[in-house]
Amino acid sequence: MKLYDLVDAEELLSTEIVIDGHFPAIYIDEYDTVYCYNGLINDERFIFMPNVVWYKDKRQHEVNGFFRIKDGRIVFEKEVFGGRKVKCKRIDAYLHFPMPSDMSYHIISNLGEEIEEKLTRAIFGLTYDELNELLNCFNEIFKICPINIYSRYPRITRSSKNNHCCDISNLWIPREFPYITFNTSNYYYSTVSLYGFYQNINFLTQRSMDSYISNLFIKVGLNPSILESVFKIKIDGYREFPVYESLVMEIF
């Protein structure tokens, strides 16, 4: 059964959607594509924060586009759903971003754990536990960081004060957003986006379970389903544009 059919919510047309309330605004279309909007650009403001409230009312014409979280990165869309006309449902859910006492990220809803995990994968690429397992196996194979009880790397973290960009892909990493660090600040690979890491895995494995590197991952104990999830992460979708550091610098 499709995830769309499991979501108990009113069916809408995407062309009728007006994002006019709390971020995140999370939708799923009839093809099981998840849209998680968590910010916008208008003539006066650049907004990307957890659970920002912004009402369109009289300023609807000022909106220049929306920020969407997809596969662990931020993409920009001029129109919601890329301007496509599809059936969709609004998902009543919130995003849990990493905090000092809890570095996990996930979706919070009343839809049940299984659906929340699927939504989390659609938005962040992998669940927090899956990404941790992949990181540990990655380091077991390539031994980038010391493997002992004193090592703090690699790990999932976030910055509470600053924006960053990915050392691999140059993708924008907003403050509070999860990323991976392999080293202390200001050193190479201290800031790696989730999406950048996934694409590195896809390059090393050639998106094949039969590759030499995929077999190494499985040999050191990685659940094969985690690799299969990473293989599904595509590069670009319809009318969506990755947000790089250069775009953010232009706006600011």
Radius of gyration from CA coordinates: 18 Å
Q: How many extended strands?
A: 14
Q: Helicity level, as a percent range?
A: 25-40%
Distance between the termini: 45 Å
Unreliable stretches: 51-61
The tally of domains stands at 2
Structural class estimated from helices and strands: alpha+beta
Shape: globular
Strand content of the residues, in percent?
15-25%
Q: Treating each run of at least 4 consecutive H or I residues as one helix, how many helices?
A: 7
Order of helices and strands: HEEEEEEEEEHHEEEEHHHEH
Average per-residue pLDDT, rounded, comes to 87
The major β-sheet equals: 8 strands, antiparallel
Q: Which keywords apply here?
A:
7 helices; eight-stranded antiparallel sheet; two-stranded antiparallel ribbon; 252 residues; single chain; alpha+beta; 14 strands; 2 domains; 23% strand
What would a concise description of this structure say?
By secondary structure, the chain is of the alpha+beta class. Helices cover 26% and strands 23% of the residues.
Topology of this structure?
Blueprint: H1 3-6, E1 11-13, E2 25-29, E3 34-42, E4 46-48, E5 63-70, E6 73-77, E7 87-91, E8 93-96, E9 106-109, H2 113-124, H3 128-142, E10 155-157, E11 164-165, E12 172-173, E13 179-181, H4 194-205, H5 212-219, H6 224-231, E14 241-242, H7 245-251
Antiparallel strand pairs: 1-7, 2-3, 2-7, 3-4, 3-5, 5-6, 6-14, 8-9, 10-13, 11-12
